[in-house]
């Protein structure tokens, strides 16, 4: 029997149009929802038609401790001031050894929100940042 590789990711490497934003330790929101409209058909009492109408993609939230890669996010966002242009993003889930477990390609990506660390001398916590991305859907496999 073949050995099954566990899908345990320790980091998520993110590229925007082949420019690396570095690795993140948390990725949340990869998902899709199909909106369904119900229609009743006269004379058909055994069922109600379920008609898919729209596809909604949830925003993706990426979090990590602040590193030197944090400047890459700010540079990307600052570049958007001249005009919004949608990008393609690739998110790779990787193991500690750097092996890619899974990857997702997103089309029409724009940053929605970035929140930096809350800095306080009274609280010696790890400084973290969160990047939230909106997108228009998934592309075929990145690998």
Automatic annotation (TrEMBL):
Coiled-coil parts of chain: none
Name by which UniProt lists this protein: Phage tail protein
PANTHER family, A to Z: CONSERVED HYPOTHETICAL PHAGE TAIL PROTEIN
Superkingdom assignment: Bacteria
Gene Ontology molecular function, alphabetical: structural molecule activity
